[in-house]
Amino acid sequence: MVSVIDLFSGIGGLGLGFKMVGFDIELAVEINPRRAMNYKYNIRPKKMIVGDVRKIDFSEYKGIDGIIAGPPCQPYSNATPRDKKGINHPLYGLDLEVVSIVKQINPQFVVIEEVPAWNPDVLVNELRKLGYAVHAKIYDMSNYGVPMARRRWIVIAVKDRLNIDFVIPMEKPPRPIDVLANLPPDPCTIDPCKWNGRIVYNHVNSTINSKLNELIPKIPPGYSLIKAHRDGIIDASKYVKDVSKKHSYWMYRIHPDNPLPTVPSPRRSMLLHPIYDRIITVRELARLYTFPDTFILKSMSIDEMYNAITDSVPPKFAMKIATTIKHNIY
């Protein structure tokens, strides 16, 4: 079986996709203990380390088949304030830690995921110096079976190749309204809850103040509160101070038929259900990110669960990457 190390693993979107294709997760490393606990519970790697990759000796894993990694995006993300981005961010440079680990263990392949604002040039050049052929491209995951227009850099490096040209098979995404079907119309008051004779996990959401609740029914599908205000559908100034300072996807109601745009922090953005007048639940967000209902989050607050999912690679897209690697290398 092909074995991999999963770095900056989070709750495991990338790792789950590789495992579902048949890869063996030899080791996963995550600094957040609650995210690591959920990774271990759901994906069951051979070994889980809760810690900083910069302080771990990986030499015992020399010769492992692959490294998969999703370094923190905060130093590069457009959602990070300008004065805290780049070298001003404490997590800056963790992408290049992947190169340091590659030097230690010399894997056959490397996969790295990062936000579009990231510049991959330095990392790509370093991998090429180590004898890897490198494919780097920004992918829109809505073209690959994920019901959201999530754009990310994917870097795939393969040892001892002159060049590579990976083609990930495209797939039309399902409609969000279909993805969200067969769940209770109202959030559960306890987690898990029982509905229609089955157990439903993580179907919980956060409450918002009553004034904003009055606005939700007025927001059409495919509109944020800000867009509805600008288009004259709602006078949001009656409900919200400084409307112009809110980001463009604040209180966005999902369109039932079209891929969801990338909404920063669905909890703070208050991402709305396409039909029901409420914020989507954690389980609904997990489904939109293509996590199966068998993937269960535990020992986290509701906000932590929202954020952990948002920081993940959708497993459906990770499966596409893993399958392509399997067909091209093994």
Q: CATH superfamily name of the largest domain?
A: Vaccinia Virus protein VP39
CATH topology of the largest domain: Rossmann fold
- By DSSP (H or I, 4+ residues per run), the number of helices equals 11
What coarse outline follows from CA principal-axis ratios? globular
Please give the share of residues in helix.
Answer: 25-40%
- Distance between the amino and carboxyl termini: 10 Å
Number of strands: 11
Keywords for this structure?
330 residues; alpha/beta; Rossmann fold; DNA Methylase, Chain A, domain 2; seven-stranded mixed sheet; 11 strands; globular
Q: How would you describe what is shown here?
A:
The chain is α/β, with parallel strands linked by helices. It has two domains: 3-171 and 313-329, Rossmann fold (3-Layer(aba) Sandwich), CATH 3.40.50.150; 176-310, DNA Methylase, Chain A, domain 2, CATH 3.90.120. It contains eleven helices and eleven strands. The strands form three sheets. It has a seven-stranded mixed β-sheet with strand order 3-2-1-4-5-8-6, with helices on both faces. The radius of gyration is 20 Å and the shape is globular. The N and C termini lie close together (10 Å). The mean pLDDT is 92.
